[in-house]
C-alpha cells in the first residue's frame, strides 16, 4: 500500500488530519452564491480586478491558481497562506512557496471588495474565486465556485514542510501523491485532474534539475524522462541555478488546455510528480483519455476544484472575516 503504509494507517492519518482541519463535515456551510444578498457584486468585482490584472500581467495566472492549492492543502482553505508574520514564520515563507507570487493582487481584490461591502467577503473565498477567474482568463473552464469560507488565524512555517501532512514535493512518487490526496478526502481522479493545473505556468530549475544532472547522486539523469527533452532543458538550466525557470507546459504555458497530459504521456512531464502519474494505471488511463476526442478534462477540473475548495473549511461562526488579507483582525 501507499508508501509502505497500510490501509489502517491511512485511515488513522485521515482522522488526524481531518480533525486538524475541521470538526465539520467537508464543505458543510459552503454554497454557490453565498454573497448574493450580503454583497451581490462580489464575484463581478473579483472578476473585474482579475481581468484588469491579466491584461497587463498574464504570467500571474499560474501563481494565482497555485495559491488556492497551497491554501487548501495546509490547514484547509482558510486563507492561511496569505498571512504575514513579523518574523517570517508563517506558511508563505516556507520553502515550497518558492514562486508563489501575486499576494498583492489578492490585496487589490480585497480592497475593492471592502469598498463595496466592508467586512463581508473572506480572504479564503477571494483566493478560491481568483483561482477560477485566472483559469477562465487562460481559456480554461468556468465552474461555479462555492463560497462561505471564513478566515483562519494560524499560519505556521513548519506546516508546508511537515512530512506526509505538508505539501507534496516535486519529487513525490505516486504513492505519496495518492496518500496526500486521500488524506484530504480527495481521490486519485482528483489527483490527476488537478495536476492538470500544470498546463499553465512555470517552474524554477531547482524544482527539477536533479532529473537532469544528479538523479541518484551519481551524476546521472532520470531514466524516465525523454533524453531529447533532458538535453533541451540542460541548455536552459545549469547545475544549481536558483533563478532560471522553464515552462511547465512548453509551447502553451499561457493557455489552459490538454497539452500537459500529451507531454506527460510522452515522458516530457517537467516535474517528477508529473512523471509519476504514469506509474498508476488509473492516472495513466485518465491522461490518455484527457488527450482524446471525448476528453472530459475541462468539466472534471471544475468538479475537482470544487472538491479541493471544500477541504477543512471554516464556516458559520468559525474563524473571522479578515479586513486585510495579510493580517489577522
Ligand atoms: C501533484 C502535486 C503537485 C506538486 C508536487 C506541485 C509542485 C509544483 C512545483 C514544484 C511548481 C514549480 C514551482 C517553482 O519551482 O517555481 C509548481 C507550479 C505550479 N503548480 Fe503545482 N504542484 C502540484 C499540484 C498542483 C495543483 C493541484 C495545482 C492547481 C490546481 C497546481 C498548480 C500549479 C501552477 C499553476 C504552477 C505554476 C506556477 C507559476 O507559474 O509560477 N499544482 N507546482
Ligand atoms: C515513495 O516515496 C516514499 C517517501 O519518500 C518512500 O517511503 C516509498 O518507499 C516510495 N515508494 C515507492 C514505490 O517508491
Ligand atoms: C522577511 O522576508 C523578507 C523578504 O521576503 C525580508 O525582506 C525581511 O527582511 C525578512 N524579515 C525578517 C524579520 O527576517
Ligand atoms: C550529486 O549528489 C551527490 C549526493 O548527494 C553529491 O555528493 C555530489 O556532489 C553531487 N554531484 C554534483 C555534480 O552535484
Ligand atoms: C484564533 O481563533 C480561535 C478561534 O477561532 C481563538 O480561540 C484564538 O484565540 C484565536 N487566536 C488568535 C491569536 O487570534
Ligand atoms: C513570497 C515569499 O514569501 N517567498 C518566500 C518563500 O520561501 C523562501 C524560502 O524559505 C523565502 O526565501 C521566500 O521569501
Brief summary of the model shown:
This protein has helices at 7-21, 42-56, 61-73, 103-116, 123-137, 158-161, 174-183, 188-195, 210-213, 227-236, 259-265, 272-275, 281-290, 297-308, and strands at residues 31-32, 146-147, 202-204, 245-247. The chain has 329 residues and is mainly alpha-helical. The strands form 2 sheets. A two-stranded antiparallel ribbon has the order 1-2. A two-stranded antiparallel ribbon has the order 3-4.
Structural summary, described in words:
There is one protein chain. The protein is globular. The protein folds into two domains: 7-165, Peroxidase, domain 1; 189-306, Peroxidase, domain 2, CATH 1.10.420. It has helices at 7-21, 42-56, 61-73, 103-116, 123-137, 158-161, 174-183, 188-195, 210-213, 227-236, 259-265, 272-275, 281-290, 297-308, and strands spanning 31-32, 146-147, 202-204, 245-247. Residues 1-5 have low confidence and may be disordered. The termini are far apart. The chain is mainly alpha-helical. The longest helix is centred in the first third of the chain and has 15 residues, at 7-21. Helix content is 43%, strand content 3%. The strands form two sheets. The protein has a two-stranded antiparallel ribbon with strand order 1-2. A two-stranded antiparallel sheet has the order 3-4. The structure holds protoporphyrin IX containing FE and 2-acetamido-2-deoxy-beta-D-glucopyranose (5 copies). One 2-acetamido-2-deoxy-beta-D-glucopyranose binds at residues 87-88.
CATH topology of the largest domain: Peroxidase, domain 1
Question: How many beta strands in the DSSP annotation?
Answer: 4
Distance between the termini: 44 Å
The major pleated sheet works out as: 2 strands, antiparallel
- The tally of domains stands at 2
Task: Report the helical percentage.
Answer: 40-55%
Order of strands, widest sheet: 1-2
SSE order, one letter for each helix or strand = HEHHHHEHHHEHHEHHHH
